[in-house]
Amino acid sequence: xxxxxxxxxxxxxxxxxxxxxxxxxxxxxxxxxxxxxxxxxxxxxxxxxxxxxxxxxxxxxxxxxxxxxxxxxxxxxxxxxxxxxxxxxxxxxxxxxxxxxxxxxxxxxxxxxxxxxxxxxxxxxxxxxxxxxxxxxxxxxxxxxxxxxxxxxxxxxxxxxxxxxxxxxxxxxxxxxxxxxxxxxxxxxxxxxxxxxxxxxxxxxxxxxxxxxxxxxxxxxxxxxxxxxxxxxxxxxxxxxxxxxxxxxxxxxxxxxxxxxxxxxxxxxxxxxxxxxxxxxxxxxxxxxxxxxxxxxxxxxxxxxxxxxxxxxxxxxxxxxxxxxxxxxxxxxxxxxxxxxxxxxxxxxxxxxxxxxxxxxxxxxxxxxxxxxxxxxxxxxxxxxxxxxxxxxxxxxxxxxxxxxxxxxxxxxxxxxxxxxxxxxxxxxxxxxxxxxxxxxxxxxxxxxxxxxxxxxxxxxxxxxxxxxxxxxxxxxxxxxxxxxxxxxxxxxxxxxxxxxxxxxxxxxxxxxxxxxxxxxxxxxxxxxxxxxxxxxxxxxxxxxxxxxxxxxxxxxxxxxxxxxxxxxxxxxxxxxxxxxxxxxxx
Amino acid sequence: xxxxxxxxxxxxxxxxxxxxxxxxxxxxxxxxxxxxxxxxxxxxxxxxxxxxxxxxxxxxxxxxxxxxxxxxxxxxxxxxxxxxxxxxxxxxxxxxxxxxxxxxxxxxxxxxxxxxxxxxxxxxxxxxxxxxxxxxxxxxxxxxxxxxxxxxxxxxxxxxxxxxxxxxxxxxxxxxxxxxxxxxxxxxxxxxxxxxxxxxxxxxxxxxxxxxxxxxxxxxxxxxxxxxxxxxxxxxxxxxxxxxxxxxxxxxxxxxxxxxxxxxxxxxxxxxxxxxxxxxxxxxxxxxxxxxxxxxxxxxxxxxxxxxxxxxxxxxxxxxxxxxxxxxxxxxxxxxxxxxxxxxxxxxxxxxxxxxxxxxxx
Lengths: 587, 362
Ligand code: HEM
What we know:
Oligomer: heterodimer
Protein name (chain B): Cytochrome c-type biogenesis protein CcsB
Helix content of chain B: 55-70%
Number of helices of chain B: 10
Radius of gyration of chain A: 39 Å
Largest sheet of chain B: none
Membrane topology (chain B): Multi-pass membrane protein
Helix content of chain A: 25-40%
Bound molecules: protoporphyrin IX containing FE
Keywords (chain B): Cytochrome c-type biogenesis, Membrane, Transmembrane, Transmembrane helix
Largest interface: A-B, 79 and 75 residues
Shape of chain B: flat
Largest sheet of chain A: 7 strands, antiparallel
Strand content of chain B: under 5%
Distance between the termini of chain B: 23 Å
Number of strands of chain A: 24
Number of helices of chain A: 12
Subcellular location (chain B): Membrane
Radius of gyration of chain B: 22 Å
């Protein structure tokens, strides 16, 4: 990009011309118009698409989203029979992968590329071309001033322009001196090319972020696993409870590392009143092996502190209790023994328990109930858990026998038992009553169906395992984007022109003007600094032309010619620097 | 492991908060008094000038009108031109014959006693408030932004602090009633609706990213608060300038204390630019933290969605400032919409929406 489309139409012709020439040495009027038109439309389009993107992102926070929680979506559709289905057709449960959302951001990025490429080319050219020609009337520039070097100082116009060039070069301007030995030598200077570079880097990096995210979706994978204390996870497909591969995933990507959960500790808040009993620290001690033959290594896995292994990161995302039970069947054999993962249901680790015993003979057995770490009964005779720690652990179960339906091969949810085809053995409303077990106790099932012992309690953790190859590059691009953004917002692109001349009485007259490109609230400050530097260089008193400060307040759009003119006169006899003979040579 | 909890400190903190809120309330009254009084005084001056003026056939506020009264009538409403420093200065003065405060927002020579009292009171309140925040941190043994109560009290402190700091360089006292009023609302909301005793952080929040991510988020929000106030005033001022320029009566006399619409736009742009960078960092650090905590840096969680929406709206604002026909009033509206999203994100999303971020301490 070079000059913005901000040349006011109503501007008086010479300024508009000066600006246009200043900005676009290479293009004609027609080219400029076409260019301006493209710029105009694309900028508006970008703005429109940006706002559209903001609006389009909102529904994703209003309706449950499938990728986050598919069960919530199903529930929502059931709860809203009138319009639940319709919303689904509109992809409002998959907002961020929906056709319309994708269309908006893809259009935005196409527009972005269409915007960045020509701007990059234009800027490359601008950086290699000379500063723009000196405008005829510097007094029309937003910052303008004059200085007068007394005739005795021995600084002719050509020296003055070279001095000014030196000063500007030191301040980081690129300077071109024109017509140094002529009657009206001048210079054009420009600085702040990094502003545009920053802007281009920013926008390009946004594309980089998008591509990185897409790459992560293609080549990444993620999965979940529940580990009871003592369990070991091996990074193979069967090791996962749940696995979601990226589009281009290959199982050979999995490095067969292992991770064993040795111990899981929770610290509960015993200090504060409001949050008494809330967990304040989770710490899992794990033993890891990079591959089956590697030496074991003990590590600590915590929330906010994942373990990195074999190109994946392992996160602690859940935990709970796993009561350990032994179940004997009607024949007296142990049909099942071990921890049962209890699913969190309510306060203080109030959890549900489902036990399926397909190996029990002669009848398969099933248990459904609750586990409470600190069991209490309230005055309405309802059990609840009074504390998250194991002060009074209790298993309350109903039991069933019959065909569990596991042999059909259809996948079943381990946390649910369908009791439709089962015969109840134990329940509150039956003669046998429900089963209530404390650790160490055993209950014998009615009708000789077997027994169940509650041996103890272990803890379990849920871990998420993620591999996202796009992550690092997304971060790099994001950092680049910020760097570019800061450059683009805080570097000021400025142009300075200086013209000198000799008055009839031998004094050297200097006039200068500054023009900002883009937002620049420090332009006046820069003008003041330059003025000071010039004054010091030529040993002029600070206020040699104090009345100029009035001029520096005018804007290019202000057409009060008389004001500018009067200062020109006041400044001395360098009356019309833009006179017919003068700067024409520059052009 | 977190540090221990000190309930006594927590109680001191609440006392400080209460005292601060009371002092803010007095400061608020002083600011309001300043607006009323200065507006009256200015009107009297204008009246006199008008009487003298009609005799000498000089327009009201003659010094201001020089050469620029007409030129700027279209005002910032449809300016495609991007102002530089000098444009701002002229904009401040030349507002079509409407009297406004200095466009530079530099302190003028005349003293405004109520305003000075108000600033002094606000400073006092902020010091007490700061003590409240610090004792809260000591009481909880951690940074004081782990739940809604703390976001609000610490956030309100930052709003006040940012406002007072900017007063050092600019005369933004015209924003006083708004800013102090908002601080009071935040503190009242904190203690009425979100009160939480000192406590430990849930494990999900125990991370140095809480310090980085949330502090930048709150700071950016404080800046957005200032620009919201300015953009709102800009809309009113621009309406007023247009009305007066069209020969209408100046019904909003107190707006004389407020700089011209263009000056407001320029300053709020500069603050918004800083705040936008801050918000970009908020977004990025949030993503890095999400990666640490949940294993993915972006998952369109409700809070993430709204953080993104806010970011895009303000990006739109920055674009608008560079788009012909979108500067001025429209950009101001975008700035306001952006701030409404910030508020929404903080209130509704934190309390009513379910998501991974739902640990606001309710
Ligand atoms: C992914 C979407 C986009 C985002 C998030 C975005 C964001 C931004 C931001 C934050 C700025 C302010 C930085 C600055 O002022 O230099 C900016 C400036 C700019 N953007 Fe974009 N942009 C996007 C797309 C586009 C597109 C498609 C175009 C092309 C038409 C575009 C053209 C510009 C221009 C010309 C500026 C410079 C304005 C100025 O100097 O203030 N942007 N953009």
